[in-house]
């Protein structure tokens, strides 16, 4: 009977390599070693023979399920010997360490055995070995007993590189480990080119250039060998090895910082290398340039173009291929420009590091024009001639690597110019003030100036604001010195404010001696000074068509971007709508269907946007879970069902990213405390620590409960009926044990207790958590996270239906706006644009009301009984000043009672 090691059992249970072509089992061995599990060495199925070499031993048998031939074992030894000489003796990689006598002596051990179908080899770390690197490890290699000699060469080179990697540091990113080992196959056996197969089997850096270099999904990490291949060809073949040395020198995982440190040896850094890597990947396949870029680029597929333009002006954005850092890249191609110049403006998502280049493509070598981008706006432009190039390509790359930069947005705008002048500067944009400014609000005027000419320029910039009467109410100027060609600069002027409501004219102007093209020297815009009006506004209606129903239980929203909010009507309907908050238009886009059946949304239904996808649960006591692309919301795919009982209400879902991967946290509600994590990449559910409870711990989370995410690391969780608010840390995957807040039961405008019920809603935005209480009330609250206080806000209006928030109530936040559904069989879409407290001021016990008797010319203290209650109805001790909060003051005298609600801040 075949004997199988623990390692192979783990592989057999955890992966299906035969389907996805992942033939190397090293990463599972490394993962277990990191978790403290040392895998047992193979026990071969028959008497063991050896091929002995100076540095290693090959263990094999000629009988049983592990059987092979002496010739196969001898070939294995020859290929390991060659890999050792090439990698260690020639290229200077460190040799695997001695293993303390395991396998018979201190030499390195290779086992030939019958591996699971689809697995060709693995390298398993075994013992910690800190000489000379603190996180080094010993290891051994396992190789399948039935490989072609072509595959045997590849496996020996690949797994031996893993053995060397382990001595530097077993803690580095698995993507980098496989990048390097796959690249080393080609270094050792350049004529085989097995790495090219991964461009057919998996997503890769050419068909998915927007993915980061750290990507390890769908075998990307093997095709990702292009990254160390680039480092070796661009900076020298020693660059990847030096990176491993730098990683090993410092304890812990240092993959990206180690690469950056290695590049310093070549007068470079990781930010610039990522930019160049983006450019190099353009020159593959039909655009190959083996002389100046990848030496085997003619063998590679052609990298994917995001979009092509042949008419102008042209503009666009990232579309469905939002790039992530480090290294995510997009290519946009431009043609048919005649003898004109292409002027391209690039604008990346603010506060992230970007790189942008324009490739003027022609017979090698092509021309590359680098954009000068500012920070934090990530904006710049470049002008490139069409006449000397067959086409022009815009290359945009996320160069940020020291902090997360996932699924970023960018925009570009291109136009044709018939001429480029030697001396030409101008105003590109008036950045501040915006078109509308609140009366008496201070602002600092800012403009963007650009040098369109061919030489550096120094000039003056003037800024003025005029009243309609032509009166100048503001003017200032600033100097710009030595602005380079194709350069731009943001110029700021002294701050000001305007008190008078009305319309004004803003003018920005450059003054440059001998400017050859004055038409772009001046820019004007309108400025409206207004008196702020904040609060709720009903901005649109969810159509009755096609089903004749309004929003009710199961209603919800998912925001995609500035122009798209998907809306579920709920109410036992499968209808899905697209709402554009830019123009308040809404359209019915279809019914949610799967397997030929309508997915009717009921209580517990939920719609969530995350990454490239929409996620959807129909509720109605079911556990079904679906996904669609944001760009094709009706094309649903069924995912693994949610564990446990069905969803009946109190459901909440949030999307977040950890380590570049997407996850969904789900609060089941339905009177349970169940809390789950869904791994978007691997498609599995994990049971997490149950949501906490304080009052009535056996009651769980009733209808009206929900969760919201702050976009960083904290989930806020609202427990309906008990008004309890909790926090969850997604980094530590644990509930904050000492945090609990109580959403006040009493609103100052109501004066009586109100619990969170059906229709309760929660949404995070700008350091506040917003709430509806539901239960047919219109109460609207915010929890101020910074000041740790509760704010009673303006009620959601009753509207023409004269209804409060109930089943289908929903809140969602986007860029300073709250969008809401009232549910309760209504159709309105509401928007909130400010915070107006219904009650303000502070009150202390020594300032309580007195009764004035004017006819007698004196003041008497109030002589009746005074009681003060907090928002939960609890009687407060009168001996101290009140803490911030909401209180009811009850005064009784002569059998009569009067109540007053106050807010103490």
UniProtKB/TrEMBL annotation:
Looking up SUPFAM superfamilies in the UniProt record yields:
Kelch motif
Does the record carry Signal as a key word?
A: yes
Q: Does the keyword Hydrolase apply?
A: no
InterPro entries assigned to the protein according to its UniProt record, in alphabetical order? Kelch-typ_b-propeller
Kindly indicate where the leader peptide sits in this chain: 1-18
Q: Which UniProt keywords apply?
A: Signal
Protein name as annotated: T9SS type A sorting domain-containing protein
Q: Which domain of life is it from?
A: Bacteria
């Amino acid at each position: 009977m075949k004997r199988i090691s623990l390692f192979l059992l783990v592989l057999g249970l955890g992966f299906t390599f035969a389907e996805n072509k992942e033939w190397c089992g090293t990463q599972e061995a490394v993962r277990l070693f990191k978790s403290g599990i040392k895998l047992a060495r193979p026990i071969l199925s028959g008497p063991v023979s050896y091929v002995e070499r100076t540095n290693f031993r090959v263990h094999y048998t000629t009988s049983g399920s592990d059987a092979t031939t002496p010739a196969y074992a001898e070939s294995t030894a020859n290929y390991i010997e060659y890999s050792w000489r090439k990698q260690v003796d020639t290229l200077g990689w460190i040799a695997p360490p001695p293993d303390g006598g395991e396998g018979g002596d201190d030499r390195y051990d290779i086992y030939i055995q019958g591996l699971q179908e689809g697995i060709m080899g693995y390298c398993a770390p075994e013992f910690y070995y800190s000489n000379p690197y603190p996180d080094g490890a010993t290891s051994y290699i396992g190789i399948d007993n039935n490989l072609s000699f072509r595959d045997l060469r590849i496996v020996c080179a690949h797994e031996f590189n893993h053995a060397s990697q382990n001595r530097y540091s077993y803690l580095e990113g698995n993507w980098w480990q496989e990048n390097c080992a796959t690249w080393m196959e080609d270094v050792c056996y350049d004529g085989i080119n097995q790495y090219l197969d991964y461009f057919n089997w998996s997503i890769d850096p050419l068909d998915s250039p927007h993915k980061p270099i750290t990507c390890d999904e769908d075998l990307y990490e093997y095709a990702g060998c292009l990254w160390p291949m680039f480092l070796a060809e661009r900076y020298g073949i020693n660059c990847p090895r030096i990176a491993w040395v730098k990683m090993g020198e410092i304890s812990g995982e240092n993959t990206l910082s180690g690469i950056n440190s290695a590049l310093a040896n070549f007068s470079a850094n990781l930010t610039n290398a990522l930019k160049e890597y983006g450019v190099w990947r353009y020159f593959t396949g039909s655009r190959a340039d083996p002389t100046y870029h990848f030496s085997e680029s003619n063998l590679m597929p052609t990298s994917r173009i995001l979009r092509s333009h042949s008419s102008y002006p042209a503009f666009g954005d990232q579309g469905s291929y939002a790039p992530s850092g480090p290294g995510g890249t997009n290519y946009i191609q431009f043609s048919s420009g005649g003898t004109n110049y292409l002027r391209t403006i690039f604008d990346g998502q603010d506060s992230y590091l970007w790189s942008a280049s324009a490739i003027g493509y022609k017979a090698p070598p092509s021309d590359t024009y680098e954009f000068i981008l500012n920070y934090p706006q990530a904006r710049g432009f470049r002008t490139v001639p069409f006449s000397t190039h067959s086409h022009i390509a815009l290359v945009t790359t996320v160069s940020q690597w020291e902090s997360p930069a996932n699924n970023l947005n960018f925009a570009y705008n291109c136009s044709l110019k018939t001429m480029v002048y030697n001396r030409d500067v101008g105003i590109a944009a008036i950045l501040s003030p915006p078109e509308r400014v609140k009366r008496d609000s201070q602002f600092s005027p800012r403009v963007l100036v650009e040098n369109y000419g061919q030489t550096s320029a120094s000039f003056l910039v003037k800024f003025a604001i005029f009243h309609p009467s032509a009166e100048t109410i503001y003017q200032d100027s600033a100097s710009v010195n030595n602005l380079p060609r194709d350069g731009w600069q943001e110029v700021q002027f002294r701050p000001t404010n305007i008190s008078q409501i009305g319309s004004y004219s803003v003018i920005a102007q450059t003054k440059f001696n001998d400017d050859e093209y004055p038409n772009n020297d001046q820019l004007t815009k309108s400025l409206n000074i207004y008196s702020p009006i904040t609060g709720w506004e009903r901005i649109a209606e969810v159509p009755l068509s096609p089903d004749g129903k309004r929003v009710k239980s199961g209603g919800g929203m998912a925001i995609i971007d500035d122009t798209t909010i998907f809306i579920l009507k709920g109410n036992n309907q499968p209808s899905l709508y697209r709402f554009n908050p830019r123009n308040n238009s809404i359209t019915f886009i279809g019914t949610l269907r799967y397997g030929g059946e309508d997915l009717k949304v009921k209580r517990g239904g939920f719609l969530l946007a995350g990454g490239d996808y929409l996620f959807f649960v129909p509720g109605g006591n079911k556990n079904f879970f679906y996904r669609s692309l944001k760009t094709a919301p009706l094309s649903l795919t069924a995912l693994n069902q949610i564990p446990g009982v069905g969803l009946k209400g109190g459901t909440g879902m949030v999307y977040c990213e950890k380590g570049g991967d997407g996850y969904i946290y789900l609060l089941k509600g339905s009177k349970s405390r169940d809390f789950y994590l869904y791994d978007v990449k691997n498609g599995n559910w994990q049971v997490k620590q149950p949501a906490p409870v304080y009052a009535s711990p056996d009651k769980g989370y009733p209808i009206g409960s929900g969760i919201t995410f702050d976009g960083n690391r904290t989930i806020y969780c609202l427990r309906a009926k008990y008004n309890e608010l909790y926090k969850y840390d997604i980094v530590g995957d644990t509930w904050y044990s000492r945090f609990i807040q109580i959403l006040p039961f009493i609103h100052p405008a109501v004066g009586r207790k109100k619990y969170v019920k059906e229709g309760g809603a929660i949404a995070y935005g700008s350091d506040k958590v917003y709430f509806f209480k539901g239960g047919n009330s219109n109460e609207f609250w915010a929890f101020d996270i910074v000041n740790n206080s509760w704010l009673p806000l303006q009620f959601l209006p009753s509207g023409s239906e004269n209804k409060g928030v109930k089943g289908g109530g929903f809140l969602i936040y986007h860029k300073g706006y709250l969008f809401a559904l009232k549910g309760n069989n209504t159709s309105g879409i509401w928007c909130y644009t400010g915070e107006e407290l219904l009650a303000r001021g502070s009150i202390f016990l020594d300032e309580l009301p007195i009764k004035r008797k004017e006819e007698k010319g004196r003041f008497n203290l109030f002589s009746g009984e005074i009681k003060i209650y907090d928002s939960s109805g609890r009687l407060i001790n009168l001996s101290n000043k009140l803490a911030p909060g909401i209180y009811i003051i009850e005064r009784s005298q002569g059998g009569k009672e009067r109540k007053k609600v106050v807010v103490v801040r």
